[in-house]
Model the fold of this input.
Amino acid sequence: MKWPVDITKYPITQKFGERPDIYKRFGLFGHNGIDIGCPTGTTLIAPISGTILETTDNPEGYGLYIKIQNDKEGVVLAHNKKFLVKVGDWVNEGQEVVISGNTGFTTGSHSHFGYYPIPRDRTNGYNGFIDQLPFLNEPLKMTLDDETFKKLVKNSTNWDETVKYLEITTDPKDTSFQQIQDVIAGIRSATTACQNTLTIRDQDLQVAQVEISNRGEELARKENDCQLQVKFLNSQIDSLDKQLKIAQEPQGEMLGQIGVLRGQIDELSKEKGRLLKQIAIQPVIKCNHFADVGKMIAMLFTKLVRK
Done:
């Protein structure tokens, strides 16, 4: 059995049985093949001689894949871009059969190389596939050019930094892609929840701003009404002050006149006393004089009352 590509040019990116947490969704114990990191457009050859049983598209899994089988064994080459043969064709080991791609469930361009013996035991936890590494004619070589080596080192460093950044506690080399996806999904969910909360708070803020604006307008109206009332009351007070001043002016004049009249009354009382003394001495004269004085007093009181 041959490698489907020149294994000295392309690295093994995933071995058989690795990352069981990812492949349990497919009902598998782990990876059921070998992944080869060849770029899209690489021509792949048939690892074994046999009949083309399937050229199928499985978008959720293998993508475009081809199945070759004979009476002893079978192989699957998956995630391809193009088929170079059709179902029913017989192909010889080493014959070109597909162009590699990046279709189906992948994280990047590569070729999935699966192998199973006949009879095929689909209950073995890997859907009948087994590790083909011991049966390959060519030894596994990891000779890398400088550029490929630098890319692998950079990718490994980026992976370690990503695991650290996402605060995943497991060792980066033991961290699966599914763990990364789960953490990112949690971050997205939390982000969505925060955005929804912010939207609700923004709506509440808009309602509060409208209410504050309405209350501001109401306070402005009330303030204007109060100012008008204060102005009216001030005008009333001014009017009353004027009326009070007007009323106080004649009151002072009248009090002065009353004082004068009281002084005149006192003088008249004194005059009356003198007259009474004179009456005792001169009855007739006093009688006549008293009559004149009585008239005078009567005139003064009449004048006082009119005032």
